[in-house]
Amino acid sequence: MMKQPHILCTEEDIDKMVLLPGDPERVLRVAGFLDSWEEIAYNREFRTIKGTYKDMPITVTSTGIGGASATIALEELVACGAKYFIRIGSAGACQAYIDIGDLIIPTAAVREDGASRMYVKENYPAVASYDLIRAIDDTSKELGYRTYLGIARSHDSFYIDDELERMTYWNSKKVLGSDMETATLYTLGNLREVHVASILNNVVRYEADVKDGINDYVDDGDLAAEGEKKEIILALEAFYRLYESMMPI
Ligand SMILES: O=P(O)(O)O[C@H]1O[C@H](CO)[C@@H](O)[C@H]1O
Ligand SMILES: O=c1cc[nH]c(=O)[nH]1
């Protein structure tokens, strides 16, 4: 097999289970939780490492920002044989009760992105893999992590003029938080018949940052960093739970 054109990997490089952070730097922070790892490729926003967690083989590939690059990563990873994907991302809460570092687990997502519309009509739902959500939910209960399961919203433009109005609208519709890849990945995952779920670390306080227009990414950096550690552990342990359940007895 030729190397895939963007991720620069072949099927020999890619495991069945893949973690998908947006940020290439987060790939290296995941590496800190693995028992062994090596970097396979790093091209544009797509950094791929391969390693082991306990006895489970695992790949980590960054998707970059937004649906367009996320579809490239997912398509090329599927072409290399990957079957299970957990996005470990960050999000901005749409609800005041969600604190910095709390984890949002989207069971579905509003498709306010452009990339998924290139694939299928807007009334096709963006839904997570039930198997992965169940594994993530069971694992988070075991770990004692505070998580919020429900609907997220994925968008394409961080700085549009009416973002506050949109966030206020989705707040009134009980949407939990915004990111830029989940809806795209869920839509494409279902079309390609692979399993996809997201775990999103909340990095924004809805009342203070969104409604009052103050951005406190920096002040709450420690809480956000703790949230990122929790989402990595949760994703690895949920994958391990699934991996063990698949092993012949
Ligand atoms: O931290 P990541 O995983 O990149 O996720 C979020 O952060 C980026 C925007 O700052 C977008 O990609 C958004 O989805
Ligand atoms: O507010 C936020 C934070 C992270 N990601 C988003 O898409 N929005």
UniProtKB/TrEMBL annotation:
Its EC number is 2.4.2.3. The keyword DNA-binding does not apply. One of its GO terms (biological process) is nucleoside catabolic process. It catalyses: uridine + phosphate = alpha-D-ribose 1-phosphate + uracil. The keyword ATP-binding does not apply. It is an enzyme of class 2 (transferase). CDD domains: UP_EcUdp-like (cd17767). InterPro entries: Nucleoside_phosphorylase_CS, Nucleoside_phosphorylase_d, Nucleoside_phosphorylase_sf. One of its GO terms (cellular component) is cytosol. Keywords: Glycosyltransferase, Transferase. GO terms for molecular function: uridine phosphorylase activity. Residues 17-200 form the Nucleoside phosphorylase domain. Belongs to the PNP/UDP phosphorylase family. This is Uridine phosphorylase. It comes from Vallitalea pronyensis.
